[in-house]
Amino acid sequence: MALKILDYGSPEYRQMVRLRNDILRKPLGLAFLPDELEHEKEHILIGAFEEEKILGCCMLVRETQDTARLRQMAVLNTLQGKGIGRALMAFAENIARDKRFGKIAMHARKTATGFYEKLGYEIVGEEFEEITLPHVVMEKKL
């Protein structure tokens, strides 16, 4: 498995958008809007690949000078629980450290909090609803 930073607009990036749409959006009856994707030019886009096929992805967004926000974490349904998410998170954390961020924060789906807690993330604040699902803010100091 290869972990890499993707170029916005590349064929790998288009695979990333399809994966995120299939895993995160379609089940909720949602789809990406073109101007929503336009903003991703400025984000750090991360993918896990086996040869040319995407297995999982996430992105980092500058939230403050010290904090990167993890967004759009997705792994193929058939491969969840096989270490791909863990590898993506370790890679994203290393990139965040290299960029001098002291913390990663995220809006985590309530159903995913156990996964992130195993990686050292803590829930901060109250549960809230986002894109029709319960979420919590989670953070980890790097």
Give the structural class. alpha+beta
Low-confidence stretches: none
Q: Biggest sheet: strands, sense, closure?
A: 8 strands, mixed
Work out the number of β strands.
8
Helix content: 25-40%
Mean of residue pLDDT?
A: 96
Order of helices and strands: EHHEEEHEHEEE
Strand % is 35-45%
Termini gap? 24 Å
User: For the CA atoms, what is the radius of gyration?
Assistant: 14 Å
Number of helices: 4
Outline type: globular
Produce a short descriptive summary:
By secondary structure, the chain is of the alpha+beta class.
Molecular structure report:
With 142 residues, the protein is of the alpha+beta class. It contains four helices and eight strands; from the N terminus they run βααβββαβαβββ. The chain has helices at residues 11-25, 34-38, 84-98, 113-118, and strands at 2-6, 44-50, 53-62, 67-75, 103-109, 122-123, 128-130, 133-141. Strands 1, 2, 3, 4, 5, 6, 7 and 8 form an eight-stranded mixed β-sheet that branches. β2 (44-50) and β3 form a beta hairpin. The protein starts with a strand and ends with a strand.
